[in-house]
């Protein structure tokens, strides 16, 4: 059963009239907000922090931080000085300069944000790594990007094979009693003694800002490079879509290891001068509701898996909290089920607004604006200044209600500029006519609303995290008992999809439950907990093409009891 379109709720939104804005909008209107417009030079960290520290927002809280051990807050002025100090420490002790890659690999903490913004103030390119990554995943990324410096913790350092990374010259450790050496530097100590004044590195709009590694269906994870110019769209969507206003308290639940945690956990909200809540630690429904109540969160950005987990924690729990400040709720990362929207209406009395975008796009592209009617099941409409369409494999635009490739006309401000060291991969995203092809299939209805249908490729979205089957298969293949492995996403009511692996064993190995668990642990330790298959099924042989590629499509058909389709390329 579908919900009827949910009407606009009365309110004063930053975007009041969608149609008019689309007709008259020009990105150069937004560019005028930034220093670049006057000086020709810019720096994301200046625009996100220092600019406010030099304005009426000086003593406004920029960052509220909480985890199991710490509760702290920092004003924009304090953030400016602390990020200056972080920059000075990185420069003095790590020789970090413009264009260098600095990786940040640690759980959420205020220092993580000082380190990211400090690196950006030096013009360095930041590579954020999710804390759950294990040695293999960490090494791949540091190696591919030739990272020069790393900020991490003593606990996580065990997963960094420093000796095998010749380009990695300095490792800054955030922790207690750090013993310094040629490569190891005590981040807190060096920050404390660093100068609080800094000559910011003014860069060009097209200079590198951030490198997010993400997964495709083939090959190793790829480094998606974004540039400072992304601020134009991140700022504009923070106004239009997040609808941030001066008095808002904003909470984005994503970790900065993923793009949502940087574009909308750091850049967007701070470009808009908002108070930003950052919460560390593991997901617990009680803690999340407590966060909403204690900080008086007004604008909240999360993901369907999280909503579904809250939903399964029951309606009695949510009633114990005062969530009356909450005024605007958004979702990203996976399809937002109408059922979740219905639940949101019931327990928060709020419409949950879906937003669609990707690591590669740098910022939101198709969304349900607060000023639009919401059609449950739809991701919404393209933001003004962006052209979206459904195209066929040749780049021809398809009419309404026809399913095809969700594509965006090249040239939006926050688009990725490079796949690190891989021009061919970058080029493979585009079709004739200047269409960027997302890898998602969708259709558009006659009112211009877009509806997500699935991935065109084999990428798995599990709990909102994007996992490439190839990376998991490669890891499983390293297990001494394994001959072949094929990995697919299996539909799951809470997590969207779970990772399922089909495995053929080398001769002499018994297909036991212990071995399944051993393979699971092997992937968990070698790659990351969220990439470990929740289900493993042993088969004597896996379906392969004549060129030896595992046919994941056939595995999926086995799993879902569907017809296997055309098998003419199968080996025998
Ligand atoms: C921001 C982010 C991108 C992929 C994307 C699509 C899926 C994102 C969605 C959605 C349905 C939405 N996705 N938003 N699917 N409805 N509103 O998630 O980036 O990690 O790169 O994932 O996520 O399949 O192609 P990323």
Would you write up a description of this structure?
- This protein has 19 helices and 27 strands.
- Helix 4 runs parallel beside helix 11 and helix 10 packs across helix 11 (259-271).
- It binds ligand 6R9.
- Residues 214, 258-260, 332-335, 354-359, 379, 438-440, 452, 455, 461, 466 line the site of ligand 6R9.
Structural class: alpha/beta
Q: Report the mean per-residue pLDDT as an integer.
A: 94
Distance between the termini: 44 Å
Radius of gyration: 24 Å
What spatial form do the alpha-carbon principal axes imply? globular
What is the makeup of the main sheet? Answer: 9 strands, mixed
| Largest beta sheet: strand ordering | 2-1-11-10-12-13-14-15-16
User: Could you say which small molecules are bound to this protein?
Assistant: ligand 6R9
> What is the count of DSSP helices, taking H or I runs of 4+ residues?
19
Q: Per DSSP, what share of the residues sits in E-state strands of 2 or more residues?
A: 15-25%
Which regions are unreliable across 5 or more consecutive residues at pLDDT < 50?
A: none
Helical residue percent? 25-40%
What's the count of strands?
27
Domain AMP-dependent synthetase/ligase: 50-420
Protein name: acetate--CoA ligase
Organism: Lederbergia ruris
InterPro entries: AMP-bd_C, AMP-bd_C_sf, AMP-binding_CS, AMP-dep_synth/lig_dom, ANL_N_sf
């Amino acid at each position: 059963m579908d919900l009827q379109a949910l009407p606009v709720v009365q309110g004063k939104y930053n975007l009041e009239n969608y149609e008019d804005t689309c007709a008259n909008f020009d990105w150069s209107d937004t560019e005028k907000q930034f220093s670049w417009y006057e000086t020709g030079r810019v720096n994301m960290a200046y625009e996100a922090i220092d600019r406010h520290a030099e304005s009426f927002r000086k003593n406004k809280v920029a960052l509220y931080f909480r985890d199991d051990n710490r509760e702290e807050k920092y004003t924009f002025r304090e953030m400016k000085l602390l990020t200056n100090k972080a920059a000075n420490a990185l420069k003095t002790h790590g020789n970090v300069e413009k264009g260098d890659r600095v990786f940040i690999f640690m759980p959420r903490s205020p220092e993580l944000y000082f380190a990211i913004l400090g690196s950006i103030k030096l013009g360095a390119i930041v590579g954020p790594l999710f804390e759950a990554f294990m040695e293999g995943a960490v090494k791949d990324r540091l190696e591919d990007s030739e990272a020069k410096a790393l900020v991490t913790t003593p606990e996580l350092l065990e997963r960094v094979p420093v000796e095998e990374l010749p380009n990695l010259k300095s490792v800054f450790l955030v922790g207690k009693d750090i013993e310094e050496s040629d490569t190891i530097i005590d981040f807190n100590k060096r920050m404390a003694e660093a100068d609080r004044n800094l000559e910011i590195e003014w860069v060009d709009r097209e200079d590198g800002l951030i490198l997010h590694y993400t997964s495709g269906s083939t090959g190793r994870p790829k480094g998606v490079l974004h540039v400072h110019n992304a601020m134009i769209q991140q700022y504009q969507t923070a106004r239009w879509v997040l609808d941030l206003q001066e008095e808002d308290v904003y909470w984005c639940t994503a970790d900065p290891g993923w793009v949502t945690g940087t574009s909308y956990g750091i850049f967007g909200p701070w470009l808009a001068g908002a108070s930003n809540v950052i919460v560390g630690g593991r997901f617990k429904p009680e803690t999340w509701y407590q966060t909403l109540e204690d900080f008086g969160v007004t604008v909240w950005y999360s993901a369907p898996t999280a909503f579904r987990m809250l939903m399964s924690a029951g309606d009695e729990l949510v009633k114990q909290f005062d969530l009356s400040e909450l005024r605007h709720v958004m979702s990203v990362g996976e399809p937002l089920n109408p059922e979740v929207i219905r639940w949101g209406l019931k327990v928060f009395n709020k419409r949950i607004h879906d937003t669609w975008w990707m690591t590669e796009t740098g910022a939101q592209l198709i969304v349900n604006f607060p000023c639009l009617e919401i059609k449950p099941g739809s991701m919404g409409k393209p933001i003004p200044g962006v052209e979206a369409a459904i195209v066929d494999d040749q780049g021809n635009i398809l009419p309404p209600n026809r399913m095809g490739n969700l594509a965006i006309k090249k040239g939006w401000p926050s688009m990725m500029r490079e796949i690190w060291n891989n021009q061919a991969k970058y080029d493979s995203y585009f079709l004739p006519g200047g269409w960027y092809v997302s890898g998602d299939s969708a259709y558009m209805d006659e009112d211009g609303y877009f509806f997500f249908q699935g991935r065109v490729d084999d990428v798995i979205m599990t709990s909102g995290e994007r996992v490439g089957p190839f990376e998991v298969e490669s890891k499983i293949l390293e297990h001494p008992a394994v001959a072949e492995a094929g990995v697919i996403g299996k539909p799951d009511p809470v997590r969207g999809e779970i990772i399922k692996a089909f495995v053929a064993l080398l001769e002499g190995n018994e297909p036991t439950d212990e071995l399944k668990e051993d393979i699971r642990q092997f992937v968990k330790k070698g790659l990351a907990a969220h990439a470990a298959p929740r289900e493993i099924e042993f088969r004597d042989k896996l379906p392969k093409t004549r060129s030896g590629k595992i046919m994941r499509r056939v595995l999926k058909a086995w799993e879902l009891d569907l017809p296997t389709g055309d098998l003419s390329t199968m080996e025998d």
